[in-house]
Amino acid sequence: MKIKLNVVAIALTLCFSDLAVANEKTDPGDLPDFFAGTWTVEGRENSFRETCKWLSANSFLICNGTDVENGKAANWLTLLGYSHAEKMYNFTAFDGGGGKATFSGWIRGDNWVFTSEQFIHGEASRLQITITPTSDGYVLQEEESVNGGPWKKTVTEKHLRVSAAAQ
Predict the structure, then answer these.
(1) Which residue, of 60, 137, 140, 160, has the greatest Cβ tally within 10 A?
(2) Structural domain containing residue 41
(3) CA-CA distance, 7 to 51, in Å (whole number)?
């Protein structure tokens, strides 16, 4: 479960953390350059890295990440894009163990909100991830409802930029 959450959290946080830049866009499909670069998570600066680069200018952002915990590396790859037909952001995350998670996202007020429905260990799981911009990155919060049960916070992380993308 921790690997799934890391993959989802990383993918989402990289995608939508600069609301001010996003709100200035005239076309919601133009993803801000803010997302490109290298990121870490507060408290895991020595073990967590994710680097995001453009496939081509403002088309798809591709991110590669690694998080080392107890001497074992968890790796993932994420793709982020915008669907003009559906008028929403889409991203898919793939982890090193063969897992995949797909989310849809929208801007709600000052936050980015992403949702997904999937089966995890044979149980119906609904996930919602809220990303709140901060002065030095963003806070990511994940909530989960299993089999229609109550929503529970499962992850809260502060993501920090290590470096911007090379121009």
Answers:
(1) 140
(2) 2-164
(3) 13
- Domain tally for the chain? 1
Cβ neighbours for 116, distance < 8 A, ≥ 6 positions apart: 8, 101, 102, 103, 104, 126, 127
- pLDDT tens, residue by residue, 59-92: 788 999 999 999 999 999 999 888 888 888 888 9
Whether the Cβ atoms of residue 15 and residue 113 lie closer than 8 Å to each other: no
- Is 124 in contact with 112 (CB distance < 8 Å)? no
pTM, to two decimals: 0.75
Q: State the Cα–Cα distance between residues 2 and 74, nearest whole angstrom.
A: 10
Contact between 66 and 74 under an 8 Å Cβ cutoff? The reply is yes
What is residue 8's three-state secondary structure? helix
Planar angle of CA 158, 56, 51, nearest 5 degrees: 30
Distance from first CA to last CA of the chain, Å, rounded?
A: 36
**pLDDT for the residue 120:** 80
Amino acid identity for residue 96 in this structure = G
